[in-house]
Predict the structure.
Amino acid sequence: MYNLVLLAARPPEWTHEQFIDWWRGDHAELTYRLPGLRAWRHTEIDKALEPRSEGWDGISVLSFDSPQDLKKALASQEWADAIAQVGDMKGRRIAVMGHEAQLFGG
């Protein structure tokens, strides 16, 4: 799998609950449509392990078969629609991508 990983923090005027509801609701409706999307996992962050990790609300892992499939998704109208929905939200995000390796399957 080739993953796009997004770590996000809500806009300052939103509550954590509002942001998670939007992310898993209205925003998810657009994200599901991405061409080539094979899996999508989302974690609601409810606690940081240490102070330097505080301030984040959730993480999404969007999985594709290959870097080329992700590239096609990022060039799609469906991605443009999802980005347009985010608009000028004042939240923060970190977006990274890479190959997945399963190290434990327990």
The first strand starts at residue 2 and ends at 9. Strands lie at 2-9, 39-44, 58-64, 92-99.
